Amino acid sequence: MPLGVFYWILQGSVQMGLWVIGHECGYQAFSNYTWLNDTIGYITRACLHRISLGNIVIALLYVCSNVSSQKYEKFANHFDPKSPVYNDRECSQILMTGVGLIVTSYGLYKLALAQGFTWLMMWNWLRGALAIIDRDYCVFNRVLHHITDTHVAHHLLFTIPHYHAMEATKAIKPTLGEYYQFDDTLIIKAMWRETTECFFVEGDEAEDKSKGICWFNNKM
């Protein structure tokens, strides 16, 4: 392996480790002190040229009125295709994004009416969290602060800091039973497998492939 490629992998892994710490601070999980979480989160994200917005309120203010960002001569809104944030080439893209948000929101609204809001929320959170798979990244598990092999616990209990993630994973395994997913396939091999085999999903019912449990497939 060329030295430059090795350095690229090492540098990216270390930076990802910094991102994990900043990500954890954003959840206020790094420590019991908000000021410490905000400080560490700010520093780690700044190192990666990405300053964390800190909480969802500021994030909403940012996209709605461009709070904490560059100043413009007129009101800036990230949903407005004519906003000074964007150039002429990007207007159509922002318009399509807005249409997509409206269509998606309406679809979720109709789904909630049909299935119930509780069902919708359970799918968004619990089922989605249990769809996560812990993977073994070998030595990089430590470099990435175990976000790789304790990701199920992180999605279920996101306020647990990384230094307790291994302990939490051991604790939830007996409770989750068969719902806990772990893949010990060599990560390079797993990445190749996902790239070559996971093209699309289809149901497992013979007569109607849109029904049943959906599986990844690579054959049309």
Produce the secondary structure layout.
Layout: H1 3-26, H2 34-47, H3 56-65, H4 88-115, H5 117-130, E1 134-135, H6 140-143, H7 151-156, H8 165-176, E2 182-183, H9 187-197, E3 200-203, E4 214-217
Parallel strand pairs: 1-2
Antiparallel strand pairs: 3-4
Helix pairs in contact: 1-2, 4-5
Could you explain how this protein is built, in words?
InterPro entries: Fatty_acid_desaturase. GO terms for molecular function: oxidoreductase activity. This protein has about 220 residues and is mainly α. The protein folds into 3 domains: about 1-70; about 70-115, no CATH class; about 120-215, no CATH class. About 55% of the residues lie in helices and about 5% in strands. Helix 1 (about 5-25) runs antiparallel to helix 2 and helix 4 (about 90-115) packs across helix 5 (about 115-130). It is globular and about 55 Å long. The chain starts with a helix and ends with a strand.
Helix and strand pattern? HHHHHEHHHEHEE
Order of strands, main sheet, comes to 1-2
Beta-strand share of residues? 5-15%
Tell me the structural class.
mainly alpha
- The total count of strands amounts to 4
The DSSP helix count reads 9
Q: What's the mean pLDDT score?
A: 79
Distance between the termini: 36 Å
Helix content bin: 55-70%
Q: Extract low-pLDDT stretches.
A: 50-55
Q: How would a textbook summarize the main sheet?
A: 2 strands, parallel
Give the overall form: globular
Structurally, the number of domains stands at 3
Q: What is the rounded Rg?
A: 21 Å
GO molecular function: oxidoreductase activity
